[in-house]
Write a structure and sequence with these properties.
heterotrimer, A mainly alpha, B mainly alpha, C alpha+beta, A: mainly alpha, globular, C: Rieske Iron-sulfur Protein, 5-stranded antiparallel sheet, 4-stranded antiparallel sheet, 8 helices, about 30% helix, disordered N terminus
């Protein structure tokens, strides 16, 4: 800084900081946060991918609003793209064509916006799965889990409204589907539809309405949730995996200043750079090839963006049930999927609360679980993912049919069955795998690591040499907690008086047994077991 | 062997095994998958015969009946016209290789003269659409914009926005229109091959067929630009979603692994 | 950067293990041994390696600067409609590709530089930070509870029930104004979904040619889309009207028509069905002319047009509505009325 002339004064930067401190108290803030510790693990950066792609979406979205006209007035296309010249289209579509073909760099920004949106939701899902499978949602982070979940749901709907804005044939078909689903709501469906679209579908209002929802209402709520999410991450301090020197009472890693400032700050540019290159080489939502929306036209392969794919799967595989009675129609074929859609999401959202109820654990948890050490949770998570994936397959059944030379009807039937059977199989298989891995860990602790070296003993026997583990490894492999199944105690107390056990307590005990009883977890090796084996005649 | 057994503990060993297993599965699949190439031989002898009826008797009569009256294995050819023969035979669909949900496009085994002879024979069974001439289907000067509108109204529901094809019921499908000659597109619209409905001149005049052909050439021709980059099959959100997951998020996770990884430590050698 | 070229004397001596001999649990083999001693990186002990890292970081930042200049140059140099062939991507917009790649490189190199700097030159000593319980100490809690009780007492909230209850009432009612204001978002449904533009005597106009159709125009196996006469694409309500009125015309040999009413409502085997799927309203028109099935491309509902368009597969709940047609005096196909039932997706009042 230019302090050479005035040596008595503090450097300019410090003076600015003093000024700000006198008004904002930044020194106290910095004292707590400037050297805040963040642990290093690649999976801890998944949330950053979400954050940065969200910022990228906002930056590019603001640019797009400068050119986009959210209007459904019909105009005749007169732009440079020959195959659409003379076609009638809404101003929304026309202005999107203008952005793509006449604004220099407009196409790039559009593609960055859309690719970043797909990656944003994908990263949120993966981030959520990381939190789920490592048990990072446990106390004190349940609220933050819910904030994150809400961000995922809102992200999906922000994406859907954005996808609908260009008023192209593909997104229009998606909006039509939504309108049909709204109509299926008992009693108020037709009213909701009329109010949403300002009359009959498609009317002339929905683009403008979706626009304010897409650029203002939903992102505004998301921004608030995001800030709260980040504040809580700072406040709780990050979780960490078990390891030497890492306890439930500390957090081991690098300080925010300078290492994480550089790494996290740099990661923003890395994310932006990757998405920019993706947008340079791969086309997304080429609305000029799709054409403007008309309610009497359609294309095969009509699908929503991937994050709505599981709802598409639900609606595709549902049998066409419809009940007509007393002059009214209950459109179960549409309404049931509409109701299962939030249930699929809610299933994963409420899981942490169920688990904490079963364990009854009120302690804070800052050490992450390895997924294998929580077999039931891991199995539940994989079952949920299987469910989700089966529905995605259903949502793309036509493309599966054409690309794997299958019958669309068989795929639909497969999905109908797999919807019920798939998660169960996944649950059982995953749990077995987890228990197997637990056994392997136990063997490793007790007998050491198989070295792959075969030794011939003097009397001719061949044995594989096992290397004993270091104390760091021993500690890491045995650091996890193991719960005991909940005991209800005798139903009759010592005085012969029947004790009342509520039904919920019985259910809890049953679940607890399923989690931790009998064969549902492998008891981790004890120090005594270890000593007994190692103090013997040396291990192989 | 010692090296190998030591390396099976390597963190990447599982990946290598997985790749090998995948390669083996793919190889097996390729070995057992139905071979497409053997079809030509059966009818190879018919190449020697150069007269329509004889050609017909050898290549077609077993399914369509000796006089083209049809049989349980194939529809009647009375009145289908020369255009239908030209389309079916020149695109290799006929003679069919085996019964199935749909007869696929394959390598044509007749030469032009033979196709003409066959077409003349079938046309003689009953009047039908004739083979179109170049000035009927040549898209020069046609209205591409109108063609697009017609395509989205009449064709896109099965063939996709830009003619990439799509699924129908029970294993049937609408084929991709990429690289199909204007003549064959014209004939297909006029005759309605297999399960495709026809679009006769009475409901879709010649000029409109030209518009559609011109549109297809503009959006799915050899020189068609995909302004934004890779077309990803032109299939819409499904392939885009896959790309975003694999190359977008995949690349970002790879970068994250690098960012979070420990820097190499100095070691005593 | 391999470790081979590092002089032996520069390597850390067997680590200053001070402070790392924590609770070496004599009787617990699984006890936490404490944080492992810090190991130096090559850059920590070899100034040459450190300088190499410094140069790499600076190079990355420089590349970023060059890429930004490239971005600006591309913006100026390439016309917006220039198409180039780039292997293996294909024919693509030169401007989009150039801008995207240069922007990507410019951004990526900043990030890569910063991360490389952090990884190789900033300290990599791991630090442990204490955590503190989130819940407050009991004294704090007691103070807060006392403060709250005092505040509540002073407000008289609990004692003056009249105030409390009327306040709740007022607060509960006031959002109603907001709800009421939403009323004008749209009209009431009334019977709007029950009527289309079709009515008795309206000719069937071919949507391709905009000409009315004669029965002889429609051959067996063909597929034609029609709209009611008097409509054009330029009408301001075209989109909303065609969303209900879209109609498809096919001709089936009368002998092949299995449904009696369908045959009655047809004209010489020419049948007219709504093009709007009864599931959620996609235009359904994937007509297989040999099986007479139509498939919806959105959700695969399949209808049999030779059997009253009943549902044979998929999520649709009822058959496609048929429009009764005939021929007028001039020999053109015409509607003999509106659809007898609402077209499109089912709804509560449909019955």
């Amino acid at each position: 800084m230019s302090t050479t002339t005035e040596n008595k004064k503090a450097p300019a930067g410090e003076r600015v900081a003093d000024w700000a401190d006198g008004r904002l108290g930044i020194y106290s803030l910095a004292k707590a946060n400037m050297r805040k510790i963040f642990p290093d693990h690649w999976s801890f950066m998944l949330g950053e991918i979400c954050l940065y792609s969200f910022i990228i979406i906002i930056l590019t979205g603001v640019y797009l609003t400068l050119f986009f006209h959210p209007s459904m007035n019909e105009v005749e296309y007169a732009g440079p793209y020959v195959p659409l010249q003379g076609q009638l289209m809404s101003e929304a579509f026309n202005s999107t064509m203008h952005i793509s073909f006449e604004v220099r760099g407009g196409l790039l920004i559009r593609q960055i916006h859309h690719w970043a949106a797909l990656i944003f939701v994908a990263a949120m899902l993966v981030h959520m799965m990381r939190v789920f499978f490592t048990g990072a949602f446990r106390k004190p982070r349940e609220v933050n889990w819910l904030f994150g979940f809400l961000l995922l749901v809102l992200g999906m709907f922000t994406g859907f409204t954005g996808y609908s804005l260009p008023d192209d044939l593909l997104s229009g078909t998606g909006v039509r589907f939504m309108q049909g689903a709204v109509l299926s709501v008992p009693v108020v469906g037709t009213y909701l539809s009329m109010f949403l679209f300002g009359g009959e579908f498609p009317g002339g209002d929905f683009v403008a309405r979706f626009y304010s929802v897409h650029i203002l209402l939903l992102p505004g709520i998301m921004m608030g949730l995001l800030v709260a999410h980040l504040i809580l991450v700072f406040y709780h301090k990050h979780t960490q995996f078990a390891g030497p020197g890492k306890t439930n009472k500390n957090v081991v890693g690098m300080p925010l200043l300078p290492v994480y400032m550089a790494k996290a700050g740099g990661f923003f540019f890395l994310v932006f750079g990757v998405i920019a290159v993706v947008s340079a080489i791969a086309s997304i939502n080429p609305i000029w090839a799709i054409g403007p929306y008309r309610p009497d036209q359609v294309s095969t392969g009509a699908q929503p963006d991937w994050y709505m794919g599981f709802s598409e799967g639900l609606i595709r595989v549902m049998p066409g049930w419809e009940v007509n009675a007393w002059g009214h129609t209950l459109v179960l074929g549409v309404f049931v999927p509409l109701m299962i859609f939030p249930l699929v999401l809610a299933a994963i959202a409420v899981y942490p609360f169920i688990e904490s109820w079963v364990t009854g654990d009120k302690r804070e948890h800052h050490i992450l679980d390895r997924p294998r050490n929580a077999p039931t949770r891991t199995a539940f998570g994989v079952a949920w993912l299987t469910w989700y994936f089966v529905l995605l397959v259903g949502g793309g059944n036509d493309l599966w049919a054409t690309h794997f030379h299958l019958s669309i009807n068989s795929i639909t039937w497969f999905v109908r069955i797999a919807f019920f059977v798939g998660p169960i199989i996944a649950f059982v298989v995953t749990k077995r795998i987890c228990l197997g891995l637990q056994r392997r860990d136990k063997d490793k602790v007790l007998h050491g690591r198989e070295s792959g070296i075969i030794k011939r003993l003097p009397h001719g026997e061949f044995v594989e040499v096992h290397e004993p583990l270091s104390q760091e490894q021993l500690h890491t492999l045995t650091a996890h907690d193991q719960y005991k199944p909940l005991e209800l105690g005798p139903e009759v107390d010592e005085n012969g008086v029947a004790r009342k056990v509520s039904r919920s307590q019985k259910l809890r005990a049953k679940l607890s047994k399923g989690y931790y009883g009998g064969d549902n977890q492998i008891p981790k090796p004890t120090a005594d077991e270890y000593k007994e084996i190692t103090s013997g005649h040396g291990h192989h | 062997m010692k090296k190998l057994s030591a390396r099976r503990r390597h963190p990447l060993a599982a990946v290598v095994v997985l790749l090998l297993a995948l390669a083996a599965t793919g190889g097996l699949y390729a070995a057992f998958a139905p071979a497409d190439k053997a079809q030509a031989e059966e009818t190879a002898q018919s190449l020697a015969i150069d007269e329509g009826k004889k050609l017909y008797a050898v290549g077609c009569a077993s399914c369509h009946g000796t006089g083209g009256q049809g049989s349980p294995d194939g529809p009647s050819l009375v009145g289908v016209g020369a255009a239908a023969v030209d389309f079916q035979v020149a695109t290799g669909r006929m003679p069919a290789q085996q019964p199935g949900a749909q007869v696929p496009k394959k390598k044509n085994i007749y030469n032009n003269d033979q196709i003409k002879q066959l077409a003349a024979y079938v046309a003689s069974l009953g009047a039908g659409p004739v083979v179109p001439t170049d000035n009927q289907y040549n898209p020069e000067g046609a209205d591409i914009g109108k063609g697009g509108e017609l395509f989205r109204s009449n064709c896109a529901q099965c063939h996709n926005f830009t003619g990439e094809g799509g699924a129908l019921t029970h294993g049937k499908y609408a084929p991709s229109l990429e690289g199909v000659s204007p003549k064959h597109i014209y004939e297909a619209m006029q005759t309605g091959p297999q399960n495709m409905p026809s679009f006769p001149d009475t409901t879709m005049p010649e000029k409109e067929k030209k518009d559609i052909i011109a549109y297809l050439d503009a959006v799915n021709g050899e020189k068609t630009a995909s302004q934004g980059g890779l077309k990803l099959g032109g299939l819409g959100p499904v392939s885009e979603g896959l790309f975003a997951w694999i190359f977008g998020l995949g690349a970002l996770i790879a970068v994250a692994v690098w960012v979070a990884a420990r820097t190499a430590k100095a070691k005593k050698s | 950067m391999s470790s081979q070229d590092i002089p032996e004397e520069n390597l850390p001596s067997e680590q200053d293990a001070a402070g790392h001999t924590l609770v070496k649990g004599a009787d617990d083999p699984f006890a936490d041994p404490g944080m492992p001693p810090h190991e130096h990186r090559i850059q920590d002990i070899d100034e040459k390696a450190a300088r190499r890292s410094e140069r790499s970081v600076a190079l990355l930042f420089t590349i970023s600067m060059l890429a930004t200049i490239g971005f600006i140059a591309s913006y100026v140099a390439f016309p917006v409609d220039k198409i180039v062939y780039i292997w293996p991507i294909g024919h693509i917009s030169a401007l989009n590709f150039a801008l995207g790649v240069t922007l990507g490189i410019a951004l990526f190199c900043i990030g890569a530089g910063a991360v490389h700097w952090a990884r190789t030159l900033m300290s990599d000593v791991e630090i442990a930070d204490e955590r503190h319980a989130i819940s407050a100490e009991p004294e704090v809690k007691a103070k807060v509870m006392a403060d709250f009780a005092a505040g509540a007492e002073e407000s008289g909230f609990g004692r003056r029930k009249l105030i409390r209850n009327t306040m709740f009432g007022a607060m509960a009612l006031v959002p109603l104004s907001g709800v009421i204001l939403l009323r004008d978002l749209g009209p009431l449904p009334e019977d709007k979904l029950r009527h289309t533009r079709w009515s008795k005597g309206k000719m069937l106009v071919n949507m391709n040619t905009h000409e009315p159709l004669r029965p002889s125009d429609v051959s067996v196996g063909s597929l034609t889309f029609v709209m009611p006469e008097g409509m054009t694409e330029h009408d301001h309500d075209f989109q909303t009207e065609i969303a209900k009125a879209a109609l498809m015309i096919v001709r089936i040999q009368p002998d092949d028509i299995k449904d009696k009413r369908e045959l009655e409502w047809s004209h010489e085997g020419i049948v007219a069905y709504s093009k709007i799927c009864t599931h959620v309203g996609c235009p359904i028109s994937l007509y297989e002319q040999q099986t007479h099935h139509v498939l919806c491309p959105c959700h695969q509902s399949t209808f049999d047009l030779s059997d009253g368009a009943r549902v044979i597969f998929g999520p649709a709940g009822h058959a496609l509505p048929q429009l009764r047609i005939g021929v007028n005096e001039e020999g053109y196909l015409e509607a003999l009325g509106d659809f007898e039932e609402p077209v499109g997706p089912a709804f509560w009042e449909r019955g």
